[in-house]
Amino acid sequence: MDTKLLKWGALPSPPDERDYKFEDIIVGAGTLPSQYKNPYLEEINEIVLNQGSTMECVCCTVAHWKWLMERKQNGNRDMFSPSYLYGNFHDNDVDEGGCYPRCVCAQHVTYGICKFDDFPKWYNDKRLANVEYRERKAELNEKAYPYRSNSYYTCGTNIDTIKRGVMLRGGVMINVPVHDTLLDMVTSITKAPISTKLIYGYHAMLVVGWDDSLNCWIVLNSYGRTYDDLILGSAKKNGYFYLSYDYPIVETYTFVDDINEVQREEEDMFKDTIGHWAQESIDKAAQKGIVQGFEDGTFRPDEMVTRAQLCVILDRLGELD
Q1: How confident is the model at residue 163 (pLDDT cuts 50, 70, 90)?
Q2: 267 within 8 A of 25, measured Cβ to Cβ
Q3: All structural domains of the chain
């Protein structure tokens, strides 16, 4: 399939000064690591959504974000339905296939999102998805409502703010223009285009990590496991790839349920390892998924390691290539 001929489903949302800004609720506490990836990235990589030729990228991105948060908070491993959001559109959204990311975020805040098995079909046209949604509206809305988020926030384009959104909220939706470099997935890192004049459309994806040594984001896409992990020298197919920090980003969003909880988590980030003699080694081990710390955000670097903890560490080491 010629990816240049695809219809791209995201459209740049009209500017709105009423957007809540994520930078207004974070406190800038804690030292961000030079490398990070969502601890559940490899799990979602096994079941990553594949939108195919449909235009559901924005809705897939929200479904992926919700899966990561449900996995973290409740241990839930059920994927969510992008078509529920695709079919549940409003008059202030565009009539054709594409979506404004802001409108989809607002729909998720208002209605939630149902499980994939409850609405498993894919649609090339949002109006067709809306037909089935209306026929099952009461049933689907009841199933979706428990999974709504309280509010959405824009993260802007500041790298530090996006990083904190990824670490504190599981991921950040980005809407990017589709240039030739984004379509060339045989390279290890998607670089910024030489010219920004030629745009094939816009595409939404989920930032789930970063690597400062490579100056790039780790981005979960919605085309299944289609990318060779060339950076790690592996032929394994992944649903995520690496996007250069300087690739243009049009807009960014994440979801927040409790502002105070976000601020508490941020204030706890790495606070008991900052300045510690083993901080660099601890950060490297955490970045590789060998250690994860405690639920309160601390690492407790001077406590004794239990036999159970040692077994987990050895098991994770054995899984590394």
Answers
A1: very high
A2: no
A3: 3-269 (3.90.70.10), 275-321 (no CATH)
